[in-house]
Design brief:
Elements lengths: L19 H11 L5 E2 L14 H10 L13 H12 L11 E5 H13 L5 E6 L3 H9 L3 E8 L5 E2 L1 H7 L4 E7 L11 H14 L2 E5 L15 H5 L5 E6 L11 E7 L6 H13 L5 H12 L4 H5 L4 H14 L4 E2 L8 E2 L2 E2 L9 H12 L1 E2 L1 E2 L11 E4 L4 H19 L1
Parallel strand pairs: 1-13, 3-4, 3-6, 6-7, 7-8
Antiparallel strand pairs: 2-9, 4-5, 8-9, 10-12, 11-15, 14-15
Length: 405
């Protein structure tokens, strides 16, 4: 019998957030060790529960959710999403501009499959959420990573973007607020990114899933606001993070800009939407209630709220470790600290993370797993309560002390 091997399409695809390091963590768990998993922004294991109104609405609509829905999404959900953007200045947003998906992840894959031809280049930030890089590659495209500048609050390096645009560049991905860095881009930065797209005839793909998780005076600016009628902008968002329902898989993409120039692409997106029948119907009933109801996330991001206070604590504790620096996150649920190569001459950050896991039973993700260029960063999820977070970073500090010694 012939050997069964994976498709060649997967040769340049990696997703280290749930990769070989997680396999090692599972092996250790099977041996009886308790692993603190700080590798995934999954809210439920850390005591964050969905708002009761969202759960109640899903339960109420279950009897009517047994059949397939419109492949683009149920009408009430798409209406709620359209009205959400109308209220934020995008007044021309219509119901038919919205596609509902099984989370943003599915929609990213669908959009890129409908958009990318073999060899097309897509600009992706570094560091990035690695699904973007993997999905571009899997679609036959070439991800080209533009540098975000750590010395400038992890804002995109506009000159680096311009230098990497070629005649084969078709789109630019903007992740704002950023995963893994927690950066929230200023109005000036978002305008500049859209202007680059305008000058070079690029599609903007704006991943804004963390748009409601902002700290202090940070303000989120929708890329679509500045795209106007002459830049096609695909805005991705959903309920997973702000409404603490990661498992519901309720996300959307909103299309704005010159759609008359994108009818062929949109036909392809509709084809792919039809092929998967529809998104999870019960979760779609949560969208209208979530967007229109009381925004409990504001309690979590304000003074004394868990999202904010745990982010601040993690940032402060990491900064107290010799040879570790961290740009203060202004949003999202992560810290992305840097290990000074002069203090920690690490050749492989993946090996570092595995050693940390084995020694201290803490699971984090290495920076190159987010397509960062050097092996000198790792990402830490800030979702545990303050006591657990303090213990976890204390163990990381102990491990780093052994490396310094």
């Amino acid at each position: 019998m012939r050997r069964i091997v994976q498709s060649q399409k997967l040769q340049n695809v990696r997703y280290d957030v749930r990769g070989p390091i997680l396999v090692e963590a599972q092996r250790l768990e099977a041996e009886g060790h308790k692993i603190l998993k700080l590798n995934i922004g999954n809210t439920a294991p850390f005591g964050f529960e969905a708002p009761e109104a969202i759960v109640a609405d899903m339960v109420h609509n279950l009897p009517d959710s047994q059949g397939y829905a419109d492949s683009r999404g149920i009408y009430s959900a798409r209406t709620a999403v359209a009205q959400y953007y109308q209220a934020r200045g995008l007044r021309d947003t219509a119901v038919d501009d919205v596609f509902i998906g099984n989370g943003v992840s599915e929609l990213i894959t669908m959009v890129l499959q409908a958009f990318v031809d073999d060899g097309n280049e897509v600009l992706v930030p570094a560091p990035d959420y690695p699904l973007w890089t993997g999905a571009v590659s899997l679609s036959g495209g070439t991800p080209v990573h533009y540098r975000c500048d750590e010395s400038n609050g992890w804002n995109p390096d506009l000159e680096d973007i311009e230098a990497k645009i070629t005649p084969n560049t078709h789109a630019i991905v903007v992740i704002n607020p950023n995963n893994p860095t927690g950066a929230v881009y200023s109005e000036e930065t978002v305008r500049a990114l859209v202007d680059i797209a305008r000058r070079h005839d690029l599609v903007v793909m704006a991943d804004e899933i963390y748009e409601k998780i902002l700290f202090d005076d940070a303000v989120h600016h929708h890329a679509a606001t500045f795209a106007g009628d002459d830049v096609l902008c695909l805005t991705f968002s959903g309920l997973s993070k702000a409404y603490r329902v990661c498992g519901y898989r309720a996300g959307w993409v909103m299309i704005s800009g010159p759609q008359h120039l994108a009818t062929d692409f949109l036909e392809g997106l509709t084809l792919l939407s039809n092929m998967r029948m529809c998104a999870n119907v019960p979760a779609q009933h949560a969208i209208q209630t979530a967007l229109g109801g009381y925004q409990s996330v504001n309690e979590l991001i304000g003074q004394g709220g868990r999202f904010r206070e745990q982010s601040k604590l993690a940032w402060r504790l990491l900064g107290e470790i010799p040879g570790v620096s961290c740009v203060e996150p202004m949003g999202a649920l992560y810290c992305f600290p840097r290990l000074d190569p002069e203090v920690y001459p690490i050749d492989s950050d993946e090996d570092f993370v595995i050693d940390l896991l084995r020694a201290k039973k803490i699971l984090v993700t290495h920076g190159t797993g987010f397509n960062w260029f050097e092996p000198d960063h790792f990402r830490l999820v800030t979702l545990p309560d303050e006591e657990v977070l303090t213990e976890a970073i204390g163990r990381i500090a102990e491990h780093l002390a052994t490396l310094r010694a």
